[in-house]
């Protein structure tokens, strides 16, 4: 592994900040079992609706989780198998769980692939740019 550059270190710090929040860790830990509806996340984590929505939005904007809408229910899941691996490894490492050593060795060996999206990115706002009518014809 090569030494970190300053730019890479800054990116890693920003990424670590996403995990340095108790509610976000609870959400990620819950999603390790698979996709969950917002109501299921609320009951499993004990996080109230306003805070849960805020933290889900932060994780979604960082492309760590993805939403999927089914009728009126929104389900969240980790965005890729790589995100599952990272969340498992990080939580296990912080807990001192020796069973995560193979995950860490896998990451260190560079066996991670490019991120693969697991869910649909429905539910987020999408904006269109509308051009004003051209004045060339006037």
If you had to describe this structure to a student in words, what would you say it looks like?
The chain is mainly alpha-helical and 138 residues long. It has helices spanning 6-19, 22-31, 38-45, 49-61, 81-95, 101-108, and strands at residues 36-37, 65-70, 73-78. It has a domain at 13-108: Arc Repressor Mutant, subunit A. 16% of the residues are buried. The model is unreliable at 112-129 (pLDDT under 50). Keywords: DNA-binding, Transcription, Transcription regulation. GO terms for molecular function: DNA binding; DNA-binding transcription factor activity. Residues 4-98 form the HTH arsR-type domain.
Summarize the structure.
49% of the residues lie in helices and 10% in strands.
Throw out a few tags for this protein.
three-stranded antiparallel beta sheet; mainly alpha; globular; 138 residues
Mean pLDDT: 82
Largest sheet: 3 strands, antiparallel
Question: What would you call the shape?
Answer: globular
Straight-line N-to-C gap: 62 Å
Structural class: mainly alpha
What CATH architecture of the domain at 13-108 do you see?
A: Orthogonal Bundle
How much of the polypeptide forms β-strand, as a percent range? 5-15%
Q: What is the oligomeric state here?
A: single chain
């Amino acid at each position: 592994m090569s030494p970190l550059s300053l730019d890479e270190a800054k990116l890693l710090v920003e990424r670590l900040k996403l995990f340095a929040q108790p509610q976000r860790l609870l959400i990620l830990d819950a999603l390790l079992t698979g996709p969950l509806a917002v109501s299921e996340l609320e009951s499993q984590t004990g996080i109230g609706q306003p805070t849960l929505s805020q933290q889900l939005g932060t994780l979604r904007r960082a492309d760590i989780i993805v939403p999927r809408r089914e009728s009126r229910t929104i389900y969240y899941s980790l965005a890729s198998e790589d995100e599952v691996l990272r969340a498992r490894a990080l939580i296990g490492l912080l807990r001192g769980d020796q069973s995560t050593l193979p995950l860490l060795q896998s990451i260190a060996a560079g066996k991670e692939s490019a991120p693969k999206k697991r869910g649909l990115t429905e539910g987020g706002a999408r904006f269109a740019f509308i051009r004003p009518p051209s004045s060339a014809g006037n």
